[in-house]
Design goal:
Layout lengths: L4 E7 L20 H8 L7 H6 L21 E5 L8 H8 L17 H11 L3 E6 L2 H15 L2 E5 L4 E7 L5 H14 L9 E8 L7 E2 L4 E4 L7 H7 L3 E5 L2 H4 L7 E3 L4 H12 L5 E7 L1 H7 L4 H21 L4 E6 L18 E6 L8 E5 L3 H10 L17
Parallel strand pairs: 1-11, 1-12, 2-14, 3-4, 5-6, 9-10, 9-11
Antiparallel strand pairs: 2-13, 4-5, 6-7, 6-8, 12-13
Helix pairs in contact: 1-11, 4-6, 7-12, 9-11, 10-11
InterPro entries: Alkaline_phosphatase_core_sf, DeoB, Metalloenzyme, Phosphopentomutase_DeoB_cap_sf
Organism: Tetragenococcus solitarius
Catalytic activity: alpha-D-ribose 1-phosphate = D-ribose 5-phosphate; 2-deoxy-alpha-D-ribose 1-phosphate = 2-deoxy-D-ribose 5-phosphate
């Protein structure tokens, strides 16, 4: 059957075990869901994700979340083919635009010539310039930044250029303007960076600094058409919730909502579910990644999963017979693993509609693009054909 509305929810960084090529990323042994379950020692409670088959897709069930005999929906997992393990790579590939060429990474910091241009444009000096955890580098340099007005620039294991500043010292409009200029410098061909991220924070001293929800991602513009573009061009409504708008630079989206948090994002989902429309609502919930994955906080990660699971119950109750829900992730960020970077993992694929009669496994998809291919196929839209639709497997 064809569904009137499709809701695609991306649990940012909720991986389900090392990908086949994890060794190429030094990520062998990573398992976001598995290690969160271990940290909770059997007390992780995810009843709604459980009945959708979150553990059925794994070789070993998540501790505390055993597999169920008959999942409510279809279940499987997806393997990424993009060159990186960043949010941009994952989301673009879901929308049938894999990132084939590796973007630039800066394990030794950014070139001085690049920083000199940002300093000249902003009229501010630059400190940091190395891979770092955002919370740690703000704790280390935040007071200096408040005293001097310097920009804290740092990167990570991903293709990102991040600029942090205290909101009272550098107003948001100024920080955003600086980030927009930095974005213009790294669109290639010499330097091609996936995302420039504004990282504002507040607080009076290093013991109380907190990054705010005024973060803004300036992503590389899609290098080709995505599933979102094909849908929009064919009159199918497209809605983006969370950092979807940032990741796709606004392209292919008719309506967008900015999230303050995961729960705020779920409020937006509830709001959109009350609308009568035909189309696709694409949702990103980033707290798993930004608040707990990078900070290697498995307990906080698990609590965020349980909070989402409660809200998922409301979504399941609101779904109409001709609605389709698809839950997945864009990469891993194992809070029980070494370092502070994303981890190269396979991701869950949970698919449900109240109209389903005989749910079964979707197996392991060989590319995230199957996600987008299924969506465009549902609406009778032709795209670039990079993914394989599983729409005809949904009974």
């Amino acid at each position: 059957m064809a569904y009137k509305r499709i809701f695609g929810i991306v649990l940012d960084s909720v991986g389900t075990g090392a990908a086949p090529d994890a060794d190429q990323f030094d990520d062998l042994g990573s398992d976001t869901l598995g290690h969160v379950g271990q940290a909770y020692e059997g007390k992780l409670a995810l009843p709604n994700l459980q009945k959708l088959g979150i553990s059925n897709l794994r070789e070993q069930a998540i501790e505390g979340v055993p597999a169920v005999e008959q999942p409510l929906g279809y279940f499987g997992k997806m393997t990424e083919i993009s060159a990186g393990k960043d949010s941009m790579d994952g989301h673009w590939e879901m929308m049938e635009l894999p990132v084939e060429q590796p973007l630039n990474f800066f394990p030794n910091g950014f070139p001085e010539e690049l920083l000199a241009k940002i300093a000249d444009f902003s009229g501010r000096k630059i400190v940091g310039n190395r891979p770092a955890s955002g919370t740690k580098i703000i704790e280390e340099l935040g007071e200096h930044q408040m005293e001097t007005g310097d920009l804290i620039i740092y990167t990570s294991g991903d293709s990102v250029l991040q600029i942090a500043a205290h909101e009272k010292i550098i107003p948001l409009d100024e920080l955003y303007r600086i980030c927009e200029y930095a974005r213009s410098l790294v669109n290639g061909p010499e330097y091609t960076v996936g995302r420039v991220i504004a990282r504002p924070y507040v607080g009076e001293d290093k013991d109380h600094f907190t990054r705010t929800s005024n973060r803004h991602d300036y992503a590389l513009k899609p290098t080709g058409k995505t599933s979102l573009d094909y849908l929009q061009e064919n009159g199918v409504k497209t809605i983006g919730i969370g950092k979807i708008n940032d990741i796709f630079s606004g392209q292919g989206l008719d309506e967008v909502y900015h999230n303050e948090s995961n729960m705020d994002g779920m409020d937006h989902v509830d709001h959109v579910m009350q609308q009568d429309f035909t189309g696709f609502c694409f949702v990103n919930l980033v707290d798993f990644d930004s608040m707990y994955g990078h900070r290697r906080n498995p307990m906080g990660f698990g609590q965020a999963l349980m909070d989402f699971d409660q809200r998922l119950g409301t979504v399941l109750n609101q779904l109409q017979e001709d609605d389709l829900l698809m839950i997945t992730a864009d990469h891993g960020n194992d809070p029980g693993f070494k370092g502070t970077d994303h981890t190269r993992e396979q991701v869950p694929l949970l698919v449900y509609s109240p109209s389903m009669q005989a749910p079964a496994t979707l197996g392991t998809r060989t590319t995230f693009s199957d996600f987008g291919a299924t969506i465009v196929a549902n609406f009778g839209v032709k795209s670039n054909g990079l993914g394989t639709s599983f729409l005809d497997q949904l009974a």
